[in-house]
């Protein structure tokens, strides 16, 4: 296995994404609030539903399928050490530890409440670190597999040029490549810009609202920027756009939140509850209309 990535790679563009404060603004709202409307594993990313669609399939089942799909794509189920970049409340780490019995799994997050919740679970072989990937230094020889779900959107801040965004993404891929052996895999799930750029005023207002109020300091990449950033480090071995799956996931979350609205207001207040209702409802429309896409990409390190 290759040596850990250097502290600062040549030409590195450090800390061009969302700050820890911006991440905490969203993810540290209230664990109890998120528990009202996420599935029981607290998986806060797009699920993977059965195809053809089964209206009776539960959100919990679709989220487990997503975790297993990415584990399979990264070849993480048989790995000795796995890195989860953007580990959330630990659903992937728990799946790796309890179902696949991976000996060692490390999760990175910038959310103090998420890190605390993962530690409370005392999962065998699991370590969670409250640090950005730019500052991560793996122990020993690095990792056999890397998985990152729903974190890539935070790696470049609004206002950067395309070249600056690609440079920030390239640093991420260079570091991941430095932590993997030749032929090692990175399974990545991220929102991407859609190719339907014809938007009415209401859609533009909703997208600006989400950027300002829900996910500050974050920028959704174009799919071409993601692939460009990985060039010369990784080959793309699998790519799928599951926009309909995210629309269905968001509508499931919205239904669950509105069903428990009174409890939500008691936890976080009327304004925050209304903001999340608007965000979940409008984001589902954006995926339906292909203003947004959901990319699941499997990268393999160039040998």
UniProtKB/TrEMBL annotation:
Keyword check for Transmembrane: no
Keywords: Lipid metabolism, Methyltransferase, S-adenosyl-L-methionine, Transferase
Enzyme class at the top of the EC tree: transferase
Domain of life: Bacteria
GO MF, any single term: methyltransferase activity
Enzyme Commission code: 2.1.1.-
InterPro entries: CFA/CMAS, CMAS, SAM-dependent_MTases_sf
GO terms under biological process: methylation
Signal sequence bounds: none
PANTHER family: CYCLOPROPANE-FATTY-ACYL-PHOSPHOLIPID SYNTHASE
Similarity comment: Belongs to the CFA/CMAS family.
The name this protein goes by in its record: Class I SAM-dependent methyltransferase
Source organism: Streptomyces carpaticus
């Amino acid at each position: 296995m290759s040596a850990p990535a250097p502290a600062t790679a040549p030409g590195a563009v450090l800390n061009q994404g969302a700050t820890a404060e911006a991440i905490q603004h969203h993810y540290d709202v209230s664990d109890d609030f998120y528990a009202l409307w996420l599935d029981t594993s607290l998986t806060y990313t797009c699920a993977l539903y059965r195809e053809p669609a089964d209206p009776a399939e539960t959100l919990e089942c679709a989220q487990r399928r997503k975790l297993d799909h990415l584990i399979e794509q990264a070849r993480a189920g048989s790995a000795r050490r796995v890195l989860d970049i953007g580990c959330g409340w630990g659903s992937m780490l728990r799946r790796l530890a309890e179902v696949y019995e991976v000996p060692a799994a490390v999760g990175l997050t910038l959310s103090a409440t998420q890190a605390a919740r993962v530690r409370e679970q005392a999962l065998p072989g699991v370590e969670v670190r409250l640090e950005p990937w730019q500052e991560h230094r793996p122990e020993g020889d690095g990792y056999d597999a890397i998985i990152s779900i729903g974190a890539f959107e935070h790696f470049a801040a609004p206002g950067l040029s395309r070249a600056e965004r690609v440079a920030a993404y390239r640093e991420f891929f260079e570091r991941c490549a430095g932590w993997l052996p030749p032929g090692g895999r990175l399974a990545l799930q991220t929102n991407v810009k859609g190719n339907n750029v014809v938007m009415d005023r209401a859609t533009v207002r909703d997208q600006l609202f989400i950027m300002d109020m829900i996910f500050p300091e974050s920028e959704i990449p174009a799919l071409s920027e993601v692939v460009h950033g990985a060039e010369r480090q990784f080959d793309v071995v699998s790519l799928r756009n599951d926009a309909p799956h995210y629309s269905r996931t968001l509508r499931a979350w919205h239904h669950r939140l509105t069903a428990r609205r009174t409890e939500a207001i008691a936890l976080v207040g009327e304004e925050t509850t209304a903001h999340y209702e608007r965000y979940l409802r409008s984001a589902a429309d954006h995926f339906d209309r292909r203003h947004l896409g959901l990319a699941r990409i499997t990268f393999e390190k160039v040998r």
